[in-house]
Amino acid sequence: MSASDHNSTGREDHYPSRQGAAAHFVERRDPTIHAPLLNHGPLSSQQLASYSENGFLILDQLFAAQELEQLQQELARLRDDSQLRQSPEAITEPDSGELRSLFRIHQSSDRFRQLAQDPRLAEIARFLLNDEVYIHQSRLNYKPGFRGKEFYWHSDFETWHVEDGMPRMRALSMSITLTENLPHNGSLMLIPGSHRLFAACEGQTPENHYEKSLKKQEYGVPSDSQLQQLAQRGGIVTATCKPGSVIIFDCNVMHGSNSNISPDPRSNLFFVYNALSNRVQAPFCDRPARPEHICSRSTITALRRTD
Ligand code: 6CS
Ligand code: FE
């Protein structure tokens, strides 16, 4: 296990990746739960233990039918917004041109801005990260029926560290299911316990990598051997759940999702909560910072508390 390195700018890099070394593992150097252990905050002690052990937790049907309907209407409204569709925030599927993702929805949608601040979500993030939080990234992954393509295995943190300059593992994603997540429609797959090892990747970061990686990621992904080792240790869990549920997952848990050739869309909303003390710095790769709609940088302030 390599210790932290100092990259070309002399800055301490606790999780060197894509620095030319072969794929290898580095022990995680940050807690999964940053809150003091004596208090379980808005979660039960069983939920906390499960999140700490696995690196993810599912809150089943957190949102009632009426709220869910409003979220689904907003999902459709944004999908049909022709101006948004032409914007850099819209990512299309590589083959069909169908809408794959819509980024920065916590700013382009008042309803989703309000949702990101909802205490049922934000208070859990503040507790687990033990800090004020801000939205590092938000997106709708539409994963349409018939032609929704996969998201290959990856650790979000590996990308957010290397390409966005996120220093430490003190961030988490909340994926809100807006359609049913089923065994057959490309639901999120996660490897329990994989968050405890950092899979440092081989290769170098291509120029403007995000223009390709958001459609089909080929750099910053684990080697077959790394993936095999993680899956052998922890197995693979498919997070099937009803609409209105929330999949909370640590920034470093290995996850991915298959293509969707079923008629049923798998549309999930993602908020990435980052600890304010873990705000992004310069990228840990020799590339310019990614655009604001993928990585909040110029708008970093503590997320407003609402009751
Ligand atoms: O590059 C990113 O930030 C995005 N890529 C993936 C596959 N997951 C996290 C995030 O949406
Ligand atoms: Fe991801």
Summarize the structure in words:
The protein has 307 residues and is of the alpha+beta class. It has one domain: Sandwich (Jelly Rolls), CATH 2.60.120.620. It is 24% helix and 21% strand. The protein has 9 helices and 15 strands. A 7-stranded antiparallel sheet has the order 4-13-9-15-7-6-5. Strands 8-14-10-12 form a 4-stranded antiparallel sheet, with helices on one face. It is globular. The model has no long low-confidence stretch (mean pLDDT 95). It binds ligand 6CS and fe (iii) ion. Fe (iii) ion binds next to loops.
Cα Rg: 18 Å
**Spatial sequence of strands, sheet with the most strands:** 4-13-9-15-7-6-5
Separate helix tally: 9
Here the CATH topology equals Jelly Rolls
Total domains, how many? 1
Structural class designation: alpha+beta
Order of helices and strands: EEEHEHHEEHHHEEHEEEHHEEEE
Net shape: globular
CATH homologous superfamily name?
Answer: q2cbj1_9rhob like domain
What is the tally of beta strands? 15
Quickly list its features.
307 residues; Jelly Rolls; seven-stranded antiparallel beta sheet; four-stranded antiparallel beta sheet; 15 strands; binds ligand 6CS; binds fe (iii) ion
Indicate the topology:
Layout: E1 5-6, E2 12-13, E3 24-27, H1 45-54, E4 56-59, H2 65-79, H3 82-85, E5 90-92, E6 99-103, H4 105-108, H5 110-117, H6 119-129, E7 133-141, E8 151-154, H7 156-162, E9 171-177, E10 188-190, E11 197-200, H8 210-213, H9 224-234, E12 237-238, E13 246-250, E14 255-257, E15 268-275
Antiparallel strand pairs: 1-2, 3-11, 4-13, 5-6, 6-7, 7-15, 8-14, 9-13, 9-15, 10-12, 10-14
Bound molecules: ligand 6CS and fe (iii) ion.
